[in-house]
Design brief:
With 198 residues, the protein is of the alpha+beta class. It has six helices and three strands. The longest helix has 17 residues.
């Protein structure tokens, strides 16, 4: 799996531009062919030097493997998003169009059949939210900052404390829980002013 940059021309305006695709090489009928897995679009903003680390991470997520190397938070978020899109394309989703309904009065409502929902890579968020709220109430995060810890160090301490509360275990077990089962890194709580980087 790799990212390919393709020159494309707008048939109407004649404008030439580049688009990006996530592709895989397959042997089909004895010939090697490139198969487009996902069109990443014209405005794909990931730097080319990050492509070799993004693609293996997507494959790791698809196969359920833990990441060997830690990525930048924005790359990890993209890898999770692209892997989820690929899983949806493989049919691991609810039937499209079921339960959609629009109402009048200028508002749009969505009617959802709860029994038809299927979770894709669910993560826990409850205990993480409670832990962060309590830390704010007692001034724990502000105290860490007053001790001179930078954002990454504060995030590591917060993750370890909440991880030990939610899923007691070794340091490696806590790391695996944070990376694979918890949504702590994605929680944006107004007083925190940061997204935790894991």
């Amino acid at each position: 799996m790799y990212i390919r940059r393709v020159r494309t021309r707008n048939k109407t305006t004649g404008e030439s531009y580049f688009t990006h695709r996530l592709v895989r090489t397959d042997r089909i009928a004895g010939r090697v062919r490139q198969v487009t897995l996902l069109n990443l679009g014209r405005h794909f903003a990931v730097a080319q030097e990050d492509w070799p680390s993004l693609c293996p991470r997507i494959e790791e997520i698809l196969t359920g493997q833990a990441g060997l190397l830690s990525l930048k938070p924005e790359l990890e978020e993209l890898a999770q998003r692209y892997a989820a899109q690929l899983l949806l394309r493989q049919g691991q989703s609810v039937e499209p169009g079921r339960g959609w309904h629009s109402a009048s009065a200028g508002r749009s409502f969505v009617e959802v059949d709860v029994d038809s929902l299927e979770q894709l890579r669910p993560r826990s968020v409850g205990v993480e939210h409670v832990g962060l709220s309590v830390m704010h109430e007692i001034g724990f995060i502000e105290h860490l900052q007053s001790l001179g810890l930078n954002r990454a160090q504060c995030a590591a301490v917060i993750g370890n404390v909440i991880g030990r509360m939610a899923a007691p275990g070794s340091e490696l077990a806590t790391w695996n829980w944070l990376k694979n089962e918890s949504a702590l890194g994605e929680i944006r709580k107004r007083p925190v002013n940061t997204v935790l980087p894991w």
